[in-house]
Fold:
Amino acid sequence: MLRHALRIAWKDLRIEVRSKEIFMTVAFFGALLVVIYSFAFQDKSAIRAAVPGMLWVALAFTGTISLGRAFDRERENDTMRALLLAPVPRLSVFIGKAIAMGLLNLGVAVIIVPLLALWLNAPLFAYPLELAGIVIAGSFGIAIVGSVFAATLLKARSRDVLLPVVLYPILLPLFVAGTKCTAALVAVNPDLDIAHYWMDFVGIYDAAFLVLSLWVFESLVIE
Amino acid sequence: MKKLIVPILCILGAIGFVASVYLVFFNAPLEYAIDKDTGRLVGTSLFFNQKIYFFHVPHAILLFVAVFVAGISSIMYLWKHDLAWDDIAAGTVDISVAFGAAVLATGSIWAKAAWDVWWQWEPRLTMSLLLWLILVGYALVRKFAGPSADRVAAGMAIFGMVGVPFIYTMVGHDSHPASGLNGVVATQGAAMRPAFWMSFATFTCWFTALVITRVQGTRAEREVRELRERALDLGVIE
Structure:
């Protein structure tokens, strides 16, 4: 099952590496967000307090946009049906999609984080390992829950706006935990205990929703 | 019997409403505390405003229950593929969006009286808001998602229900009066108990009656839609 999943993830990533469509546009969108932040938040002395929120809002926005676009690609060529009909377990389709989306989100985050540190002079790299951990956990959390709903919404009307409407209330604990973890890392007096607590929180959140997604994916995505 | 449930609940609710208004305003004591300096009883900052507790807490409990009713019926729907379960989830959510609005409004009034701000980002109020947002999202999906609305909404209800412990952990603990076994409901003074439970029973009757009516409405809507589609297929109507 995992082998098929990896193959599906590899297929998605190869399309993306060749066309670079989603990565380029969404990463540029993320960069624009950082520019907007730097004009919207004039008080640069309060940057430590503002930057965790900026990071996670940017991850939330770019995450939903790339999810919507990635699944649109399957819809345009009607290849989602082909994927679901393929003689592999449907769960492989989900896992493959989630892996590909997680890596794509991570790629975008790799652009956003240094830009935030550079343009806003934010001390994001004080604890690079912890920050990487929470960003990876967050990217995959968004990808897991997002893949389920982007796939379910594939045939829905006004799916572009419904995707965030559905995702954000469910993902809010993850965003808040990510923000609190990042805040603990960039504070004047960094508190690693708090940061680790919220990293565990996001880890458990990811695990719980991964299990739940594996349970419900087949009944939700039936074409 | 089935046809009688809603009228009976409505009558019980109507009687209960009068009774709970009486108990709340004429029977339950006003909020006093012992003044530290003089040692005498004085009205607290809440005083008369404490009365809103009798309306706020039952609504909040019902909002919480509704999230689980919607979640569990959605699981049953995905499992059994029986649209009757979907109707229950949809009807419950419709009504609890209104009840959730009441929770937030009364909570806001309480916050103004107790903490002198209209909105405080404190745990229980935040939690009610987040649960309410899930329900509003559910209602929006139902209305606007078109053909696959039922499955998207069912997924949302299930994910929302599983998210409750995370929301609960995330919001932490703060200034809100405590809930649970050591909370205000369990430890409230004997004089407040009749008013609280009467009001709780009233709103539960009222809520159940509304939900049943709404579920019947949802089912009727669906049946009309199905009939129409069938008639269109048969060419009876254009």
Q: What stands out?
A: Residues 2-221 of chain A form one domain. The mean pLDDT of chain A is 89. Chain A has one domain: 2-221. The interface with chain B takes residues 145, 148-149, 152-159, 162, 165-166, 168-170, 172-173, 176-177, 201, 205, 208-209, 212, 216, 219-222 of chain A (CB under 8 Å).
